[in-house]
Design a protein that fits this description.
Elements lengths: L2 H21 L2 E2 L2 E2 H8 L3 H26 L6
């Protein structure tokens, strides 16, 4: 057994198990990945994505201003 597997063997095994469950283990008629791929195409998921981008963008601007010491424009 090589030094990589001695040091990282448990992580490699856990990663392989996670990949198996994500892509090959059926949860009903689909795998977890197939369920997620189907869900993200719904209008609700797209709207949630847009809202998250707006919120994260606003927060990033506020943090940047605070770090730089800029005053808000109002």
């Amino acid at each position: 057994m090589g030094p990589f597997l001695k040091e990282h063997g448990l992580r490699v095994l856990l990663g392989a198990i996670i990949i198996y469950f994500l892509f090959f283990f059926s949860l009903g008629t689909r795998t977890f990945f197939q369920h997620m791929a189907r869900i993200v195409t719904t209008p609700e998921a797209k709207e949630l994505g847009y809202e998250l981008r707006e919120t994260i963008g606003s927060a990033a601007v506020a943090v940047t201003r605070k770090v730089r010491g800029d005053r808000p424009p109002y």
